[in-house]
Amino acid sequence: MAKKSLIEKEKKKKILVKRYEVIRQSLKRQIRSSLSIQGKLTISKKLQSLPRNSAPVRLRNRCSLTGRPRSNYRDFGLSRHVLREMAHTCVLPGLSKSSW
Description:
Subcellular location: Plastid, Chloroplast
Oligomer: single chain
Order of helices and strands: HHEEH
Shape: elongated
Subunit structure: Part of the 30S ribosomal subunit.
Strand order of the largest sheet: 1-2
Helix content: 40-55%
Protein name: Small ribosomal subunit protein uS14c
Main location: plastid
InterPro entries: Ribosomal_uS14 (IPR001209), Ribosomal_uS14_bac/plastid (IPR023036), Ribosomal_uS14_CS (IPR018271)
Distance between the termini: 27 Å
Strand content: under 5%
Largest sheet: 2 strands, antiparallel
């Protein structure tokens, strides 16, 4: 189980990413459409002035049940440990896990 504080930080980052998503996309579009170098520099300064945690790159995929940050399957949103346990108990439909 991950620390509660790290899970809460991730939740705050997700909220920030959603809040600044439209602004960030519009600034990136303006940079691409701008022809002058000076214009691109001023727009990139505005982009840099946004909060760091509002960048989607800073998000970390975590297991939805345990909060484990590594070895997650995107399709299920679960870590490998939880996925294996759920597959053995036949909770996940369409997934058969072999055990030998």
